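Milestone 3.1: sequence recovery, worked example.
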């Protein structure tokens, strides 16, 4: 893969995303959410891969997979006015469909194309398949790390706006906005179990589950950024201040420190 190809991919993505902006302010805001998310991830993936000492070719493969991982989100929102895969369609598969229809990756070798496609296919799954080859697994893990790192920021900003403008998001959240949470989500985090989106019932469930993402982060540079940006602490401010939530936050903070230390 060449730097020129990567630049061509960036141009295609930015041009494609631009076609979804129009006259509706809420639609534009929702499209910009995913547009900006991708742009920040492209910066973060460079940070993570640099810290890991990864070679230039694999850096570019990872950045390409990051660039296109959510390309299905734009069409998804225009069709369903929602980013919730449950009840709409799998945005990862939609991304692959769009890339195939536009022959975006056809300039790459078959091997490079397959690595990027698999990283996109599995970036939102509960767990990665066990049978991925070493190269594909690395790129897939890098995409998942960069995604989680920025989703924390997306959620913090979105939840802050939601508190100020609850009416703006009626019907778009995909989860109940009741100020409740499910005990089984708390238990799953405390037991270091990954949580399927289908298990989440409320917005608070989503936030608590994301506090538990620390166990599913793959690389120390990502963990260090989570700590540096105080993402766990900021997320915790948006759920009820209960003993359950305090235990979850403390547990995740301890996991974060232990994993950074290599324990």
């Amino acid at each position: 893969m060449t730097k020129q190809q990567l630049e061509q991919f960036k141009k295609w993505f930015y041009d494609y995303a631009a076609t979804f902006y129009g006259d509706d302010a809420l639609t534009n805001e929702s499209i910009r959410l995913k547009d900006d998310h991708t742009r920040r991830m492209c910066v973060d993936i460079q940070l993570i891969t640099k810290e890991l000492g990864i070679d230039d070719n694999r850096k570019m493969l990872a950045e390409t997979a990051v660039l296109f991982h959510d390309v299905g989100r734009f069409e998804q929102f225009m069709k369903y006015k929602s980013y919730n895969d449950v009840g709409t369609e799998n945005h990862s598969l939609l991304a692959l469909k769009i890339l195939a229809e536009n022959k975006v990756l056809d300039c790459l070798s078959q091997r490079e194309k397959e690595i990027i496609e698999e990283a996109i296919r599995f970036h939102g799954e509960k767990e990665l398949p066990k049978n991925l080859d070493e190269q594909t697994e690395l790129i897939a893990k890098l995409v998942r790390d960069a995604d989680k790192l920025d989703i924390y920021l997306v959620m913090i900003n979105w939840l802050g706006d939601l508190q100020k403008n609850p009416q703006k998001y009626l019907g778009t959240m995909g989860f109940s906005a009741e100020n409740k949470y499910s005990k089984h989500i708390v238990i799953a985090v405390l037991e270091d179990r990954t949580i399927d989106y289908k298990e989440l019932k409320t917005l608070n469930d989503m936030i608590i589950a994301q506090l538990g993402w620390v166990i599913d982060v793959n690389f120390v540079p990502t963990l260090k950024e989570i700590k540096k940006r105080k993402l766990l602490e900021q997320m915790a401010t948006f759920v009820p201040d209960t003993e359950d939530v305090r235990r979850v936050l403390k547990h995740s903070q301890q996991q974060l420190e232990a994993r950074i230390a290599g324990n």
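Residues 3-145 form a domain with the Hypothetical protein af1432 fold (CATH 1.10.3210). The first helix runs from residue 3 to 18.
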